[in-house]
Amino acid sequence: MHAKRSPTEIAESAAAPLARLFAVAALVVLFGLGMSAFLNYFKFQSAVESAARSRMAVPASAVREGVQASLALGLPLASAAAVPDLLARERQADAAIQAISIFDTAGRVRFSTDARAVGTTVPATWLAAAGDAREVWHLAAAGFAVQGLRLRNSFDVPQGSVAVSYTTADQQRALLRMRTALLWIALVGGAGVALLAMLAVWGVLRTSSARHGARARDDGTQGHAAPLQARLAGAILLVAVLGLGGVSWATQRAFDANLQPELARKAAVVARSVGELVGTAIHYGIQMPELVGVEAHLADVRRQHPELARLAIIDMHGVPRFAVGEHTPEAGVRVPIGDAAHPLGSVEVGVSAAYLRSILFEVLLDLAVVFVVAVFLTRELLQFITATDPRLGTARASGGAVIARMRVPLFLFMLAEELTRAFVPGFARALLGASVNVSTDVAVGVPITVFMLVVALGQAPLASWSERVGLRRAMQWGALIGVVGLAGAALAQGFHAFIAWRALCGLGYATVFVAAQGVVIAHTTQAERTRGFALFVGAIMVAAVCGPPLGGILADHVGARAGFAVAAAVALAAVLAVRLLPRDASGAVIASPRLSWRDVVRVLGERRFLHITVLAAVPAKLILASFCFYLVPIYVVSLGAPTAAAGRALMVYAAVLVLVLPWAAHLAERGVSQALLVGGGLCVSALGGFGLLLWSGIAPVFVAMALLGLGQGLSIAAQSSLLSLACAEEIREHGSAALFGAYRLIERLGNASGPLLAGLLVASFGHAGAFALIAALVLACGLLFLLLAGAMRGTQVVAVRA
Question: Which of 350, 416, 567, 776 could be disulfide-bonded to 309 (CB atoms 3.0-4.6 Å)?
Answer without folding.
Answer: 350
